Amino acid sequence: MKKALIIVDVQNDFCEGGALAVPGASEIIPYINLLMEENAYDQVVLTQDWHPAGHKSFASSNGRQVGESIILNGVPQFMWPDHCVQGTFGAEFHKDLNRDKVTHIVQKGKNIEIDSYSGFQDNNHFMKTGLDDFLKYHDIQLVEIVGLALDYCVKFTAQDAVANGYVTCLHFNGTRAVNVKPDNARDAIYEMIEKGVTVLG
Fold first, then answer.
1. Fewer CB atoms < 10 Å away: N or C end of the chain?
2. In sequence order, which residues have a C-beta less than 8 Å from that of residue 24 and are 6 or more positions away?
3. Taking Cα atoms as reference points, which of 123, 116, 122, 191 lies closest to residue 151?
4. Which residues form the Isochorismatase-like domain (predicted)?
5. Catalytic one of 49, 82, 84, 153
6. Which of these is catalytic: 108, 115, 122, 132?
7. What letters, b where the CB count within 10 A reaches 16 and e where it falls short, cover 27-54?
8. What is the number of alpha carbons within 13 Å of residue 197 lying toward its C-beta?
9. Closest to 173 (Cα-Cα) out of 21, 8, 50, 28
10. Tens of pLDDT along 125-166?
11. Residue 154 gets which letter from DSSP?
């Protein structure tokens, strides 16, 4: 069974000091590097939030406060601080993440009108990123997922992996949650397990 490691959004803006820092984010990087060192993955894929300036998921683009919710193109949208803007330092991958074995990069959130938590598709389930096509082209059947953040982009990427027919595993030690609400991480794990994701570690 061919397997891929999907590393979700390990970017400067989601790490300590970033615009949307996830608590403990940089702690997962040595674990992810060790996974790549100790396992023979057929593919190693990075997903990268890659927003145009003025993206509609930004509070500043809507005259709203960070933490408010609006309806954006028919889908509830949490209002985030400006983050991972194309070409900025914040959008770059963290310098400590070993990229020697990376075979593919998927950029998401490029459409200014709609957010894209999942590495597979946007939140409207309208535009695909090409990740599924890439994995199927390379006969990948099993995916292991790590990265940021557990309760958003990791969760939706994992659920979409299951929906696209992959045996899907989440490395709990390789992810951290935003935890806008204290139980978000716990709830995300339960949701993923219900959808068929195996949680490791």
1. N
2. 176
3. 191
4. 4-199
5. 153
6. 108
7. ebbeebbebbeeeebbbbbbbbbbbeee
8. 28
9. 28
10. 999 999 999 999 999 999 999 999 999 999 999 999 999 999
11. I
Place of tokens 């397990």: 193
User: What digits encode the pLDDT tens for the residues 103-133?
Assistant: 999 999 999 999 999 999 999 999 999 999 9
Surface-to-core class of residue 194, CB atoms within 10 Å of its CB (0-12 exposed, 13-18 middle, 19+ buried): exposed
Query: What domains appear along the chain, each with residue ranges and CATH number?
Result: 3-51+83-199 (3.40.50.850)
CA distance 59 to 64: 5
CA angle 39, 40, 42 (to 5 degrees): 135
Q: What pLDDT is attached to residue 201? A: 83
Note the pTM of the prediction, 2 decimals.
0.98
Identify the CA nearest to 9 among candidates 111, 185, 122, 157. Answer: 157
- SS3 state of residue 69: strand
Neighbours of 180 (CB within 10 A): 11
